[in-house]
């Protein structure tokens, strides 16, 4: 850290970040270091630090080294940050900071960080072209943005400008999205959360909110499909890692289906290597055994799912009562009744109703999974039938079907077993089906929304303060079937897929084609449509506005992405570094570091990253600047506020923000002045909490808490009605409408996946068409890296370099041996189309025999402005063609990244 003049050794840093964890498994989960100020903070380091913990100030704020946004404290001495620790006053992070978070200090003081706006002087764009960056004034930078964005929209309309951003600065992304729409009226946007497509939708449908998790504290059996949640990623990583570890020590059994043994597989009781893209088959086989063995929660299926629905066998459609419009169940007395008055619905059976041959939804489910025997799936997934039987039996038995427990005086079903999954199951075609097959297992064992089961992060909120319901939400009910609706992901406004399916128009309005996918959240078709504007009769964007992202590396093949970027007439970038995408930017505006800025409500409303649970109160943390921004670089809020001001759009911008953040009229900042970010933070807090807990209070105290009640965690604790789907009749409703719309618009659109029950279907790369091309590359996330940029951090880079699997290609040792390959060999991975990437091999027992695995999959940075990251790691995603509709899941916009490659040794 020579540039800051401080003597903090790397050893001191690693100690602060949990030396044991880092050296043992590069896990990166730190033990809580933040006790009360001035007490034993020095004990975070075994060696004497260069500063006194009692000196200077400990300022509470929020980490942004990954999207979890844990609460932290920054030790600031003489205006210099000398250490970052967790903030034990906050449930967000629970006092922990991980290795990435502790390394934030190196980003703050990184001399390669950009802090002054620049414009390109070399008009030629390409990875091999020096953009010829020239420093400009902020005034000129704003003018260039304003002029070019406006001109494109005046020239070609609102679709001429596309905004891009993702999770690197999540609330900033929300503000970016709002600002571009409000100030310029742009209509297009692009993102690449190839993690949640399908997962979020199923979690919405089953838990009433877009993110769900095992109720770790009460759970005894966790099955994970394609995720390292709670061991390296997600689920408010620092909030979960300790609880999950404690519970494993207490006997929680942990099973991981993953082609690679990453952080999750390493810590699991059982790692199940599975062939990529086949999870649906494994999950349906588990369902098969649960059903066969009677390990199902009949009561739950009858009373909390739509399983008893009467389905017309001829059409596959549920029967609705003509008078009330409500679905029909068969009562024990042999008469069909609407779901809400049927006293004892029959879960199974075949009946004749109104002259129609009917079966219950559950009978059809049972018949449907009959073919998915453990033996049947073995050939598809490579998982031994006996393993599936064993896991199914353990899961079903761990669920304690029939038992109840009392929580805060309320008797609730106790189902301490949960099946979870994330990006591994979504990065494939038919991802919606995979997620569906996986998460439905929780319905079978009755653990959906049960104590110890699979619960939404924040399905219901009665308000963040007593007597102020301003910040409150609750999923409504879709009356025709009595199914729960949901609260949206970030801002928790009411959301209903059923309403979209039944009542919306389906005409796509953007390249993302969202309207024709009523059960999707992601505008990923933009990646196809921008490349092929004729395909869906869309208008390609001319100008791109990239905020806190690296879009060249987001998706598939980088040369394809580069071509798209070359074709934009103007590209605006807002970042902290000159990443690879910046080689295609025309102007770059630096954002200050997260330690130099204030963000009004860092976790918005629907927290997305903060898990719920009774042990985690509603927590409103502070994100305040702890040091002055280098060269006065602004935050994104300030930057967009400035653009709004220049465009004369303050009123529009601020009132939209007011609506998003539920600001009460009496607390609004003036609408006719440039946005004052601190004043806005104040108005949000007073509106959503109370007068006392304003921004000044939060700056001092760091965090405001309000206890969660039992009905905010377990949605049926108040005895209210509500069911979740098992038989997805609405998919069939959607199918007809999607097909009609596609025909009307004369566009190609796949609709085969609109079924009422989940299936496994082969995705891309499943078949080996040339025996030389037999390897499937996959990638994973570890605890010390964040997406495509953290390797630039010297501390993180050093850890990656010490990790034998850090920047290498990991391959199963036995497969390597049959190919005459060994650790240390330089190898090339190439596709049948001739695209290739190269790297150094490291063998292990921790990879499926058909796979190779790397961290990230989008590394191998080409930016010389990020010297630590330059050329490190292997970008396997470059091998995947990214602009073909054949790779898209047409239900939820997931993208198939499976491709068979040849591996060969090179000199
Ligand atoms: N440390 C850290 N934490 C993060 C992030 C970060 O960058 N760093 N990013 C955040 C974000 S935006 C996200 S989306 C999440 C990602 O969180 P996760 O989804 O938990 O992370 P990954 O490691 O990418 O998980 C994908 C896993 O699926 C496996 N996999 C690949 N294909 C298949 C398959 O077909 N089937 C199965 N069963 N497994 C498969 C991979 O080997 C990998 O282990 O993490 C969040 N948290
Ligand atoms: N191969 C591969 N591709 C992936 C993934 C993967 O794991 N592997 N993950 C996918 C997923 S799930 C996601 S969510 C996306 C993630 O995509 P992004 O969130 O776009 O992440 P990155 O591509 O790493 O780009 C982040 C950029 O933000 C900058 N940055 C960091 N902090 C700030 C800040 O505070 N302000 C500003 N202005 N800039 C900042 C960094 O310098 C970096 O250039 O990528 C997707 N694509
Ligand atoms: S998990 Fe993410 S937000 Fe939390 S301390 Fe680590 S890097 Fe920071
Ligand atoms: Mo993501």
Automatic annotation (TrEMBL):
Signal peptide range in chain numbering: none
Keyword Metal-binding carried by entry: yes
SUPFAM superfamilies, A to Z: ADC-like, Formate dehydrogenase/DMSO reductase, domains 1-3
Alphabetically ordered keywords of this record: 4Fe-4S, Iron, Iron-sulfur, Metal-binding, Molybdenum, Oxidoreductase, Signal
InterPro entries: Asp_de-COase-like_dom_sf, MoPterin_dinucl-bd_dom, Mopterin_OxRdtase, Mopterin_OxRdtase_4Fe-4S_dom, Prok_Mopterin_Oxidored, TAT_signal
Pfam families xrefs: Molybdop_Fe4S4, Molybdopterin, Molydop_binding
Domain 4Fe-4S Mo/W bis-MGD-type span(s) in chain numbering: 56-112
Gene Ontology MF annotations: 4 iron, 4 sulfur cluster binding; metal ion binding; molybdopterin cofactor binding; oxidoreductase activity
Domain of life the protein comes from: Bacteria
Keyword Repressor assigned: no
Assigned protein family: Belongs to the prokaryotic molybdopterin-containing oxidoreductase family.
Protein name as catalogued: Molybdopterin-dependent oxidoreductase
